[in-house]
Write a structure and sequence with these properties.
334 residues; Lysozyme; Membrane-bound Lytic Murein Transglycosylase D, Chain A; two-stranded antiparallel sheet; two-stranded antiparallel ribbon; 6 strands
Length: 334
């Protein structure tokens, strides 16, 4: 039965079943019956973010299972060699993809910034290897070590070069297959997800530029500091430093619906046209300015203007203002 299920998996890697795959599946569904339901429950927090950036970069959605084997979907996870976060970035790779690591912030733990960096890295690796099993192997052991294995084996198939790779990388694709199996068939093993509270699941993301402590945010919003910590694991001292590019702050959706906190930076045009009919659109997985413009029958530049957006990049659960009537002055358009 498990063989049939594995063979039917929709996976970007060539699926095989061996003793290692079976052992990892047992770890999840037999030996991990206490921990696995919480692992599955955490998908509610992070899979929507992963899906957004995988769609934006046009990569296979199943790559979201990579973070399951990297960190068990725990942003504070840290390896023996110092790799950190949902996607287990080393400090060198993190800086390569412009993730800040300093006294106050470790963006390897930021669910949004680290995910976009990981997806960008996977896209870069795919451009080089054009094979997802090799991409995942390179993600684990590094391109240099993978290239050595390819050269030594004279092959470009993971299963054929496997014995030339480090032990951890040899097990990496079997672990990925097992994680894919788990997320597709956990209910068949009577595993019931233990989901986080709705306060954690239903959230919105804002970008803040001023320095803020979690205590200040809690005072303005009524959100407990413990909730802010869980939603925003990248801030080391419960403090968000000032930043010209802005830092992401994730808040419970109910707060943003009830009333905007004072640090929420509404777009100037939205304030200027507050008497005009307008609505709020929250960016969902995979949406771009182009797809949103098509939906609301306006232009990309309209949305950029209404929301004071300097570029076309959107982040997951971002709040956008959409005017229901075109802006009267169009001189801003290039």
């Amino acid at each position: 039965m498990i063989q049939q299920r594995i063979n039917s998996l929709n996976s970007p890697v060539e699926v095989k079943i061996d003793s290692a795959v079976v052992a990892y599946i047992k770890d999840y569904v037999v030996y991990g019956q206490k921990a696995t339901p919480y692992l599955i429950g955490r998908t509610a927090l992070y899979f929507p973010i992963f899906e957004h950036y995988l769609k934006v970069y046009r990569l296979p959605e199943q790559l979201k299972y990579l973070a399951v084997i990297e960190s068990q979907l725990q942003p504070h996870a840290e390896s023996q060699v110092g790799a950190t976060g949902l996607w287990q970035f080393t400090s060198a790779t993190a800086r390569q993809f412009h993730l800040a690591i300093n006294e106050y912030v470790d963006e390897r733990r930021d669910p949004i910034r680290s995910t976009e960096a990981a997806v960008a890295y996977l896209s870069q690796l795919y451009g080089k290897y054009r094979d997802w099993a090799l991409v995942l192997a390179a993600y684990n052991c590094g391109p240099a070590r993978l290239n050595q294995a390819i050269s030594a084996a004279g092959e470009r198939n993971f299963w054929k070069i496997r014995s030339y790779l480090p032990r951890e990388t040899q097990m990496y694709i079997p672990r990925f297959i097992a994680a894919t199996y788990l997320m597709n068939y956990y209910s068949d093993h009577n595993l019931i997800p233990e989901y986080p509270s709705y306060e954690l699941q239903l959230s919105r993301t804002v970008r803040v530029f001023q320095a803020l402590s979690f205590q200040e945010i809690a005072k303005q919003t009524g959100v407990e500091v413990s909730i802010l910590e869980k939603l925003n694991p990248s801030y080391k001292k419960n403090y968000i430093p000032a930043s010209e590019k802005g830092h992401y702050l994730i808040l419970p959706e109910s707060i943003m619906i009830q009333a905007k906190p004072s640090f929420y930076n509404a777009a100037p045009i939205a304030i200027a046209y507050k008497d005009k009919p307008q609505q709020t659109h929250v960016v969902s997985a995979g949406e771009t300015l182009e797809t949103i413009a098509q939906r609301f029958k306006c232009s990309v530049k309209d949305i950029q203007y209404w929301n004071n957006l300097p570029h076309e990049q959107l982040y997951f659960r971002q709040e956008l203002v959409i005017l229901k009537t075109p802006a009267p002055a169009m001189s801003w358009r290039s």
